Amino acid sequence: MKAADRADNLRVKGPSRRLFLQFSGLAVLLTACDPHTGPGAEDVAVLGRRWREVTLGAGLFDPAREPYRDRLARLGAEARLHRDAMTPTGRSLWPDLPFPSLGATPARLRAMARAYALPGTGLTAEPGLGSAVATGIEHYVRHVYAADAGQTGNWWDWQIGAPRALLDAALLANPHLTGGQTGALCEAVDNFVPPGRLDDYAGNSTGANRVDLCTVTLLRAIAGADPGRAALAVSALSPVFRYVTEGDGFYRDGSFIQHGSVPYQGGYGVVALTGLATLSAVLRGTPWEITDPAFRNVLDAVDRSFAPFVHDGAFMDLVRGRGVARRPYGDHARGREIAAAILLLAETAPAADRARWRGMVKGWAARDTAKPMLRAAEGGDPAFHARLAAVLRDETTPAAPEPLGHRLFPASARAVHRRPGWCAALSMASSRVAHYEHGNGENPRGWHTGAGMLYWWGREHGDQYSDSFWPTVDPYRLPGTTVSTLSLPDGAGGAWGDTRPPAEWVGGVTDGAYAAVGQHLYGLKSTLEAFKSWFFLDDAVVCLGAGITCRDGVPVETVVDNRRTGAALTVDALTVDVTAGWAHLDGHGGYVLPPGQPLRTLRETRTAGGAGRSYATIWLDHGVDPDAAGYVYHLMPGAGPAATRARAADPGWARVLANTSAQQGIAVPSLGITAVAFWAGGRAGGLAASDPCAVLVRDLGDGTATVTVADPRRELDGLTVTWDHPVAGLVDPHPLLDSARTGARLTLVFGRPADRAGASHTVTVRLA
């Protein structure tokens, strides 16, 4: 996983972090270097053995049984080809890989070393292969990755990618490397990753990159039998464990950010968790075992940061940054990677976590029918396949179902909603979160993924965004978005997530079951401005838009949906391209629209890279240069034609209380819900607020109700909310509540939030 070379990636930095690293690391180093009290070279040798055991999956599988026998044989055949084709010259190690080949050459050496170290490859402990690995490392260090070489191109290749692969290969083929060869490799690594590289938790030494740099440092310590450097590698991990409030890292609300503004659980986050799981397993039982109490935050991140974005084994694209454009079914591949990391981390986690996570992964594997997880794992790491197979065989571990409810991630402008039979997820952009990320030539047309893209999955829809969706979908018509059709160049906006709009009110409020989420939208490289709200309910998402204004001289559209399917599309029973009350997509779901909105539809086959895919697109045309345009529609995942027609015939099911650039709100009497996005203080229906905020009221049907509020802008010093409903008293107040008045109406006065995280706060009241 490559990163941008940006010094301002992280804003959580400063003398306190630097001093913490220097003094805590120094204390461990002094102990480590004392031959009478600290660990020595023999302890580092144990680390080397543990590294080989953990990364090779020692004892987890029988190499003589399938599917391992075939996988290992193929690895051996690959290694034999590489060994036989190796032709060292001053310009390459293999004729087809001219220098520097920073990724491919070290990767081949590592593959050869794994074939040497793993059983069942046909080349296990074969001296000729081990010697070839040693020769290749020596040659590459002399000609490319040298102690006096200069860094060119992407920093990641020199400081993480190449050294990790070379050091791993050296450790696996260790019996065949001379002291001189190992020493030269260590000197080269020191040139690009000196100990001082870990002094500051800043720039590109944060989050997943910091975990990788610490891993390289630990491998360098093992190769050089250096206990002090091992201590440094472990102590420098600690900043990763702590929650941040801006920039890169884990957030208390479950967000994970890399490159300063890109939600990245499904990319850098997977890298971070995989690295931490590996290090935890390698270090366990050694003098360098991770004992920092803040490591508990990493364990909690499994449930808070990663699991919410995995649906039936696939890692949702809205937290995969530029990686979404890499290959078909990349979301399922990432799902397997996070499953592998979780199962490995479970081996060193407390028993309760271990049991819960194993059941969770088992549920993912059981429901992943689009790309069955166990079968897909046969071609990858044998250790993961063995762990997963063991979990699936274990009758004492029940497969956990998809959890129901709503998860809102204010720090990353993301939301995930789960109900029986369907799941939806929303990606937005704000002054803190990028519209999209492009870089290294990847994802150059992801322009509008932050313009309110609404993903959703029904039953058997696990490949909806997997099967060549990104190369073939119309990038101007992503589902849920409101966009100017102004033509944009590839890579519009800055690279590496430097595409943040000025919007402050982005986020919403949730009581854990339902949610009201809003986005003050500014178009990318456009004059477009709009106010969008989504109300996540039991069987529908009610979508409102208001204040849609643009002066780009081109049409503006709101894309109700754009499904990758050839299924039949019905609009008001018979017609298309008309003002309609409802539409239905066979096998997918229904759409309800109040009369008077200009609904447009399109059936097309789109082709890219040799892949052709059918799409059904439904959109609302706001015309050229709209002024305060708006929309209302209901998305009903999984609904059949009859249910869709019935909802269209019941306009009172969800009453729109307001749909303006000041307030957007609805009331759903059957659910006891009233919810409003207050873009400005004011009134909508029976709710009023003194300042911009989000409010969700739910009558629980047992004589009580909850009033949940949030400050998406993270700016309020106080807030007053009134609800025009008789209330007898408070059942469960909130610490931030300064005062409350009950009676014919409820008035709640909140003080300044305890943090600026945009979190939801709930007060429970007893109805009169």
From TrEMBL:
InterPro entries, per database record: Chondroitin_lyas, Gal_mutarotase_sf_dom, GH-type_carb-bd, Lyase_8, Lyase_8-like_C, Lyase_8_alpha_N, Lyase_8_C, Lyase_8_central_dom
Gene Ontology CC terms, in alphabetical order: extracellular region
Matching Pfam families: Lyase_8, Lyase_8_C, Lyase_8_N
Segments forming domain Polysaccharide lyase family 8 central: 406-639
Domain spans labelled Polysaccharide lyase family 8 C-terminal: 655-719
GO MF entry, a single one: carbon-oxygen lyase activity, acting on polysaccharides
Lyase in keyword set: yes
Entry keyword set: Lyase, Signal
Domain of life of the native organism: Bacteria
GO biological process: carbohydrate metabolic process
Catalytic site positions: 259, 268, 322
Residues of the Polysaccharide lyase 8 N-terminal alpha-helical domain: 51-362
Family stated for the protein in its record: Belongs to the polysaccharide lyase 8 family.
Protein name (record): Lyase
